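look at this stuff:

>
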Amino acid sequence: MEKHNFVTIANLTREKILYMIEMAQEFERHPNRELLKGKVVATLFFEPSTRTRLSFETAANRLGARVIGFADPKITSGTKGETLKDTILMVSNYADVIVMRHYIEGAAQYASEVAPVPIVNAGDGAHQHPSQCMLDLYSIYKTQGTLENLNIYLVGDLKYGRTVHSLLMAMRHFNPTFHFVAPKELAMPNEYKIYCREHGINFQEHTAFNEKIIADADILYMTRVQKERFSDLMEYERVKNIYILRADMLGNAKPNMKILHPLPRVNEIAYDVDNDPHAYYIQQAGNGLFARQAIFCDVLGISLDEVRNDKTIIN
C-alpha cells in the first residue's frame, strides 16, 4: 500500500480536507472494522496527553490494529542518551505507522525524514497539531453544515496554542473571518498574521472578552493558557485567569454558535456552560476517534472508496 506522512495541515488542499471529512463521516457511521488487521501502530508520546493518545489508540484498536508504545519518555532509552533519530529507526522495525507527540517544534517533520514508515504528528511543541485540526474541522462541519464563510473567534493563548495555528492554516480555503481574542502577552504571533494577509484571510484583534464581543461568533474556540510553555511563571500568573467564559455571557449568542476547546480545560470555561446548548467541546473530543481513524487509513493508502466498500464492518 502507498504510505505517506501526516505532519502538517499547511499542505492539505481544500479537496483533501473535504475528502478526509467524508472519510470521518464513514467511520462515525461504522467505527468498528478490520481494515488494519495485522498492522501495528506505535504511539510515542514524549509529552503528556490524555485525549490525543487514547483516541489514537482507540482508533487503531477499532480498526483491528495492535498498539505498542509509551506515554512516559522516562521509561525509554532516551534517558540513556538515545537520539530521536535512533528511537524512530528502532521503532520503525516494529510498527507500520508511528504516532508521535514531542515537545520540540519540528520534531515530527524530522522524524518523517528519517523514518521508513509513516509519521503522524500528534503535536510538536507550540508549532502544530494537525490531527486535532482534523477533528476540529470535522466538528465545525458537523455543527455548521459547512466550512464556508464562518466567523471564528479564537480566545486565550494564541501565542503558544498549536491547535489555533493549525486551524488558521486549514481554514484558508474556506473564506473565514477570524477574531483573535487575547491579551498582548499571548497575542497571535506575527508570522501567522502575515500568513493571513498573504492568503487573503480576514482577521480582527481584540483584547476585550465579553458578551458583546462574541455575539457574532459561529464558532467560539476557547484555549487554556499553557503553563508548560512559559519560562517566566510570573507572566503565567498574570494571564492565566484573564478570560473565563460563563453561561451568562451567552445570552446574545447566535443559535448556531458552538463552543469548541481542544481540552484539557483549567478554568477558562466555567462549569455552568457545560449544560448550555452551545457547548460542544465534549462531543468535539469524541469526534477525534473518527478523524483519527481517517488519518490512519489515509497514511496507509486506504482510500475513501475502499472504506465505503469495506466488508469487515463489525456491528
The longest helix spans residues 281-299. The two ends are 26 Å apart (CA to CA). The mean pLDDT is 91.
